[in-house]
Amino acid sequence: MHNTNIVLGIHDRPTPLRWLGLSFQHLFAMFGSTVLVPILVGLNPGIALFSSGVGTLMHILVTKGKIPSYMSSSFAFITPMVSLMQSTGYPAVAQGTIAVGIVYLITALLVSQIGTNWIDKALPPVVVGPIIMVIGLSLAGTAGQNATMNHGHYDLRFFIIAFVTLFVTIACNMLLRGFASQISILIGVVTGYLLSITLGLVDFSSIIRTPWLQAPAFEIPFIAYQPHIYWDAILGMAPIAFVTMTEHMGHIVVLNELTGEQFLKDPGLHRTLAGDGVASMVAGLIGGPAITSYGENIGVMALNKIYSIYVVIGAAILAMLFGFVGKLSAVIQSIPLPVIGGISFLLFGVIASSGLRILIDNQIDLNRNRNLMITSSILVIGIGNAFLQIGDFQFSGVAVATIVGIGLNLVLPQKAASEL
To answer: How far is the C-alpha of 212 from the C-alpha of 230, rounded, in Å?
Structure first.
């Protein structure tokens, strides 16, 4: 299948200035979540940026340059990482992060042996469509929170900034042509940032204090610390890898739909899983958190229809450089939440719309009870975040919805008894 609406294909290389603008756009999209994880956990945001860039390059290398996927800090591991930082410190977090990577690699090896024929059976359009919708819509609450709430209190300025950012982005995408249309998200972010300055929501003190050049806080074993076996870290973080794997597969399926490719077969699910695993292992070896693929960047690609691997590589290199350039990193960290929230309305919505398009394109008949049962269950479980908590392990609503959807598809008959 070939998507005729693609502006730049996976192996198309943009001109230098266009390349830089498109890569910056990806950097803005992922920056908020990337630095939020280390801030919540107690890690250095600079090393999280650097490790996201390195992890992305490793993923691209392992997948033979065939998948435009950006890798960055994962929210799934926040709870165990916070606990480990308070009790043992980063060496334990590093060991847990490396253990996550090893679980990915073992799973990738198993998948390479059993093949991928099971994928079409387990993930037909009636399952894939709602899962993609859930991936986008499950984040809607976060976008709304960022767009309205200032430290737990409603702030009209937040609302104004978020919707100005949203409407400017939409206007640029719809009314402008060529490159200006393709960087509509970047224009929207800059507009929202300037408006935030006029409304007094940008704190310049950290920008002024931060030096121009500042090395990330690398935590390399045998140099920064002497590694030991931390079983609590391994047992606390490694099982959560199976949760992020389901989200990873969902992201790959979204990219399949957007690009018209079959990434689960070429380069193969085993390579995409191995890429995630290597990325997390590298992050753990240099001081970063566990990382995974990012829906924000998929939203950018869905909006501008540019899937060039070179653009993602550019974003990864910029992230690594920003890890060392203190002033630039501080400027991006100063972007207020309502600007991110306004952009997120569009990015997350575009992902959800892609799932709806799968149902329409494959003519999924919701008058059939089987299709209705599967779709309804996935949507409400995922969007409602009906997570499963077992001890310290938490499976997100998206992960639970994915598992339920796959299970229902495998066990339900083609027709209900009332339809026979």
So the answer is: 37
